Amino acid sequence: MTSARPAMASGTLHTGPPTRAETLVAALAREITDGDVIATGVASFLPILAITVARLTHAPNATYLACVGALDPEIKRLAPSAESLRYLEGRRGNVSIAGLFDHACRGRIDVMFFSAAEIDSFGDTNMSSTGSLTQPIYKFPGVAGAATLRRLVKRPILLVPRASRRNLVPRVQVASTRDRARRTPLFTDLGVFEVGAAGARLKQRHPWSEHASVVASTGFPFTTDRPLAITPPPGAGELEAIRAIDADGICERLVATPPTRARNQR
Fold first, then answer.
1. Residue 212's domain spans which residues?
2. CATH assignment of the domain containing 257
3. Number of structural domains the chain divides into
4. How many Å separate Cα 235 from the centre of its chain?
5. 3: in domain
6. DSSP conformation letters of the chain
7. How crowded is residue 4: how many other Cβ atoms within 10 Å of its Cβ?
8. Cβ atoms of residues 188 and 161 within 8 Å
């Protein structure tokens, strides 16, 4: 599969230093290499933005399979719904749900992003309910195809944009997805872990967080790389792309306590 470089929106200029959300999006975008095939599910605003930024900067030949069924849509601006028909605009073709699973089964999907209500140090995720499946206390939206797709894609990436002891837990209450055979990156608003059968390891922290704040917001035990890497800020091209595509600040509302960003109209 080949792709064309997506267009960048214009008309609104955001100024000021990179925010937490922008730094996290840039870090996610760097997980994508040129030529990758990437897929997203529903409610994937941060991954959608990260994929678009990657294709506008260092990965123009990446191919995107959008959850609405579009192959390489031309994303000029984030829509308020991840299932918006806006993500069909400029597409090179259509992708059915059956086609998405077929590509995954054939090893054609390199990267896919997954989130959850709960994630533990083994990388098990809970998208189903609190309590148990037989006696649920609260039900979550559900696992959809994630249980299968997570095992089939080459590089699954876990994402929790608001880390707390409620979602980074010692053991998930219901294991909706499980893939302990390989180490999986887990991105949060405070840092980046690797999780798997051997437990969690903190690989890097974001510039605004300290090791103590990561510990305070994490319910599972983890070891820490020494020295601990610091997430680099977005480059100029990444920042320009993020602010053009997310001119409405949708992703800012998904990351914990973002600092105020000045906005000027061009």
1. 12-265
2. 3.40.1080.10
3. 1
4. 19
5. no
6. ---PPPP---SEEE-SS--HHHHHHHHHHTT--TT-EEE--SS-HHHHHHHHHHHHTT-TT-EEE-TTSEES---SS--SSTT-GGGGTT-SEE--HHHHHHHHHTT---EEEE--SEE-TT--EE-SEEE-SSSEEEE-S--TTHHHHHHHSSEEEEEESS--TTTB-SS-SS-SB--TTS-EEEEESSEEEEESTT-EEEEEE-TT--HHHHHHT--S-EEEEEEEEEPPPPPHHHHHHHHHHTTT-TGGGGSSSPPP--EEE-
7. 12
8. yes
Question: What is the C-alpha to C-alpha distance for residues 138 and 196, in angstroms, rounded to an integer?
Answer: 26
- Amino acid 20 reads R
Torsion of CA 104, 105, 108, 113, to 10 degrees: 20
d(CA 95, CA 97): 7
Say how far apart CA 63 and CA 51 lie, in whole Å.
9
Task: Please report, to the nearest 10 degrees, the dihedral formed by the alpha carbons of residues 95, 99, 102, 103 taken in order.
Answer: -10
In a domain, residue 6? The reply is no
In which residue are the tokens 């999006």 written?
25
Any domain includes 129: yes
Amino acid identity of 145?
G
Answer whether residue 28 is part of any domain: yes
What is the block-wise mean pLDDT of the chain (266 residues), using blocks of 10 residues?
52 75 98 97 90 98 93 93 87 92 96 96 95 88 85 97 96 95 97 98 97 97 97 97 96 74 41
pLDDT at 140: 85
Q: Angle CA(161)–CA(166)–CA(169) in degrees, nearest 5?
A: 95
Looking at residue 257, its pLDDT comes to 63
